[in-house]
Request: fold
Amino acid sequence: MQAATAPKRMTRQKAAIQAAVMSSCDHPTAAVLCDRVRAVIPNISLGTVYRVLGALSEEGAVREISVPGAPSRYDKTTCAHAHFYCSACGSVTDVDVDEDALIRHADCACGGAVIEDAEVIFRGLCAKCKGVNQ
Amino acid sequence: MQAATAPKRMTRQKAAIQAAVMSSCDHPTAAVLCDRVRAVIPNISLGTVYRVLGALSEEGAVREISVPGAPSRYDKTTCAHAHFYCSACGSVTDVDVDEDALIRHADCACGGAVIEDAEVIFRGLCAKCKGVNQ
DNA sequence: ATAATAATAGTAACGATTATTGATAAGGAG
DNA sequence: CTCCTTATCAATAATCGTTACTATTATTAT
Reply:
C-alpha cells in the first residue's frame, strides 16, 4: 500500500537546508541560506532552497518571517514570537511578545473570522545603528 | 535662492490620489486606487500612484499595509490598529488591537533599539469565506 | 540491481515595485 | 502676463524576490 497523503523523500539538499536553518542563530534570507548550503552542495539551486523552505514552512519545521519591502527571513520554530527589523542594517532580531495572547485578544475583536496566524514585526533602528546614524 | 529643505507641489494627481485614499472605506491596493483616480484623471500612471503613495506615507498622511505575498494596501491613518487578511478572498479588515501598548511593551524587550513602527497582521478566513469554504 | 517517480539544477517567467526619460506644467521673478 | 527653472508627469524599461517549467538525477521500494 502507498501513503495516500504525501510522498516524501529525504534528499541531501533538503537535509542540508534544514540543517542550515536549525544551526542558524541569525535570521537568514533564502539567498543567504543558499550560500551557506553551497559550502556543502556547491551547485544547489536557489529555486530548490525556496521550494524546500516552503515545504518545511508548511510542515511547521521552520518559520517564514515576511519583512515589508525586503526578502523574507527564515527561522527555526521555537515558541511564537515577534521580530524587529532594523531599517538601517536590515538585521532581524527576536522580540519577546506574547503572540498567542494577541491572537486570543484579537479573536474577540473580529467576530466570526478564524485567525490562523499572526505576524508582528517592529521596524526601527537597532542599538548599533542608532549610535552610528549621526 | 532656493528652498534648502523640501520643495512640494500640489498637483491634480496628488490631490486626487490623496482624496481617493481618504474617501476609501476599504483598504485598496495601488492598482485599485489607480483605477479609481482614472475616473477623474483618465491617463494617470500607476507609477505616479506608487510614487505619491510613497510620499504620502512618508509624511504620515496615509498608511501602507504590507501583506505577505500580496500587494500592499493603503489606508487613511487614524489611530494605530492591526489588520486581518483573509487568505481566501484577499480582503483586509481592521482589527482593534492596542498597537501602542504593544510597542511600549516591546520597547522594554529589545534594549537600546528605537521602535518607529509596528505592523500586526493576522491571517486566516473571514466570516464570509469560512461559511463558503466547504 | 532495477524500475518507478519524486526531487533537482538551471533557467525562464511572473507580479509588484522602482528607476529612467523626454515632455509638461507649477510657481516665482521681472 | 511672460519667461525660466525645475518638480512632477506618463510611459516604459528595468529590478527584485519568488515561482513555474523541464530535462535530468537520485531516492526508495521491490
